[in-house]
């Protein structure tokens, strides 16, 4: 029986396309007939395969114009893996479509025509909760949510859960949560384990045991238009995605979660959202000291930075592209870009300790 998994998160840069590509390839390697669909108008997944706009195959836009027995997926070099790419016409669909929850029936008929040919259909949804994403959620069996291991990991995520609940209550009562997948984990960063713990506290049994580590091989593979398994099967990235595929297969064999238990878990999550559960409590748990807080906390309490070491600052603000030996570090604040806003935090060190800070616009001369 085919399982249709939509992979979505409206927050960009969480490893959504990488997960779609490499999970699909891993399922195929594990001898599961798999179809990958690029439902993202940005077409990142499509660019990872040697397929052109003139290819004689079905594109995602064609799924919205149902014709019986007309779907011809692109055959990839990976055995058991087929692919439906996207093109510019998919972006136009969002502009033209007005009935966001109605015309998914055409899409449903198209998928019904082919789903019995596959064990899994993996859908790479776009980084927004638009008509295209919601229409695929209306025909999916489950939603897989990749969450990057960073401070603002849960930012906006509860909106996705609210949309999920709306679709599940009104349009697709069989829609489940496949799982929450932690991506880009780096054990070298002090806050990583704290964030993992907090994500598990929020989502409990919905979190996959498998964690995708930060691994350059995944990016290298995509630049060569290959899956990470085809590029380097022994890499951490390949082994992580194979473990994820195995976990999904095992979970589907032994799926004991009832709709009632899922509903209860969802209600708890949505209740947390009302309480502004946005990982703000993570920063109280950072292994620096009990009084040091988060970037959110610092946004109104930058005086708390005074006296911290470079190591502390590097841990708190995650990846920094500053020269560690420089006495001036610059951080872009999490605000909408505006020349008139103070979008940058300058931190000045003396003997590796924060002496002062400044909120200002970016000044190129300071980092020459």
TrEMBL record:
Domain AAA, residue spans: 3-177
InterPro entries: AAA_dom (IPR025669), DNA_Partitioning_ATPase (IPR050678), P-loop_NTPase (IPR027417)
Superkingdom of origin: Bacteria
PANTHER family according to UniProt: P-LOOP CONTAINING NUCLEOSIDE TRIPHOSPHATE HYDROLASE, PARA FAMILY PROTEIN CT_582
Name of the protein described by the UniProt record: AAA family ATPase
């Amino acid at each position: 029986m085919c399982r249709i998994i939509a992979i979505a998160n409206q927050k960009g840069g969480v490893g959504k396309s990488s997960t779609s590509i490499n999970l699909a390839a891993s399922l195929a390697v594990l001898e599961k007939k798999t179809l990958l669909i690029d439902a993202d108008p940005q077409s990142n997944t499509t660019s990872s395969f040697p397929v052109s706009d003139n290819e004689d195959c079905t594109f995602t836009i064609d799924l919205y114009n149902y014709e019986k027995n007309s779907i011809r997926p692109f055959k990839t070099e990976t055995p058991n893996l087929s692919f439906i790419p996207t093109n510019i016409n998919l972006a136009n669909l969002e502009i033209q479509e007005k009935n966001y929850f109605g015309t998914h029936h055409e899409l449903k008929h198209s998928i019904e025509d082919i789903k019995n040919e596959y064990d899994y259909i993996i859908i790479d949804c776009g980084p927004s909760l638009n008509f295209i994403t919601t229409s695929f959620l209306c025909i999916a069996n489950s939603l897989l949510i990749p969450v990057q291991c960073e401070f603002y990991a849960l930012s906006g995520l509860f909106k996705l859960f609210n949309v999920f609940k709306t679709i599940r209550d009104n349009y697709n009562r069989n829609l489940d949560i496949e799982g929450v997948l932690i991506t880009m984990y780096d054990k070298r960063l002090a806050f990583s384990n704290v964030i993992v713990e907090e994500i598990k506290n929020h989502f409990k049994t919905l979190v996959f045991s498998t964690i995708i580590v930060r691994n350059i091989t995944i990016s290298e593979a995509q630049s060569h238009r290959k899956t990470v398994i085809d590029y380097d099967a022994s890499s951490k990235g390949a082994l992580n995605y194979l473990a994820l595929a195995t976990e999904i297969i095992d979970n589907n064999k032994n799926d004991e979660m009832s709709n009632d238990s899922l509903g209860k878990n969802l209600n708890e999550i949505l209740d947390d959202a009302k309480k502004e559960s946005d990982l703000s409590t993570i920063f109280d748990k950072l292994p620096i000291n009990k009084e040091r807080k988060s970037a959110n906390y610092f946004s109104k309490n930058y005086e708390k930075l005074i006296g911290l070491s470079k190591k502390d600052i590097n841990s708190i603000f995650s990846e920094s592209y500053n020269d560690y030996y420089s006495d001036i570090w610059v951080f872009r604040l999490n605000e909408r870009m505006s020349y008139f806003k103070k979008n940058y935090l300058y931190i000045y060190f003396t003997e590796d300790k924060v002496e002062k800070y400044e909120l200002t616009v970016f000044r190129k001369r300071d980092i020459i």
